[in-house]
Amino acid sequence: MAAVTAESGAPSVVTALYVSTKALHLEAERTGFIADMLRGAASRRGYALLLRNLQPAYREIEDGLERHRHNPILAPLARYRLARAAAIAADLAALTGPDSDDQPPLLPEGEAYARTIAQAAGGDGSRLIAHAYTRYLGDLNGGQIVKRLLEKSLGLGEPELTHYDFSAIAEPAALKAGYRQALELAGAAAPDPDAIIAEGALAFECNIALSIAVQRSLAGEAAPS
Ligand code: HEM
């Protein structure tokens, strides 16, 4: 990977993540429940199931970043506090209602995604950079498209879509640029950039596996017993 940052001349971890996950990004868009969402065929129940299974992944990213907030590598990310776990909990409550008997299940792929992040948070925590990149830059980019799709296809409104609302933190374009720069700074300070690039592929693979599992679980629910 020959990409370098203009400022430091150091290899750009974010550009390397972008390039190395490009094919996986395309696959993520074309696979499982995410593909259903993109063609306007998602159900409210399905979206709630996806969110429920992303919740532990976000918790692990956010707990990990919090634990490492004084770590000089990850400090630039900790300053941003993009934390989505509370917003996801609020969206889930709005989507499914207060009846605790009807909550979507946690699937093995949701647990596996969270476990992968927990492992990445070990040691100097620098592999968390890949997970923060995948989820938060994803939310700030494609997430904004998904939000509009869900508004149109499912009639969801603000109470169900706070996951994609970063307005309390900053204006989205500035946030995207700022967070990208923070990821860049963190990546430049990390001792093993290749481990971060490899973790990026793993993060996308976890998302693809989850998307397939959500689609499969919904098909199982719909099948006559
Ligand atoms: C729902 C379908 C999706 C759509 C329509 C979508 C769309 C987009 C778009 C338009 C961009 C900006 C591309 C660019 O700047 O070149 C983007 C960036 C990104 N997306 Fe997605 N995306 C989707 C799903 C996902 C998923 C499932 C993930 C991973 C969990 C993801 C992670 C990312 C990341 C990390 C970026 C930032 C790339 C970078 O600037 O380095 N996206 N997405």
If you had to describe this structure to a student in words, what would you say it looks like?
The chain has 11 helices and no strands. Helices cover about 65% and strands about 0% of the residues. It has one domain: Up-down Bundle (Heme Oxygenase, Chain A), CATH 1.20.910. The longest helix has 30 residues, at about 195-220. With about 220 residues, it is mainly α. The radius of gyration is 17 Å and the shape is globular. Bound molecules: protoporphyrin IX containing FE. Protoporphyrin IX containing FE (HEM) binds near residues 29, 34, 37, 133 and 146.
Give a concise summary.
This protein is mainly α and 225 residues long.
Q: What gap, in angstroms, lies between the N and C termini?
A: 52 Å
Mean pLDDT: 93
Number of helices: 11
Helix content: 55-70%
The residue ranges in which pLDDT falls below 50 over 5 or more consecutive positions are 1-6
**How much of the residues is beta strand, in percent?**
under 5%
In CATH terms, what is the fold-level topology? Answer: Heme Oxygenase, Chain A
Bound molecules: protoporphyrin IX containing FE
Helix-strand string: HHHHHHHHHHH
**Largest sheet report:** none
CATH architecture: Up-down Bundle
> What is the tally of beta strands?
0
Globally, the shape reads globular
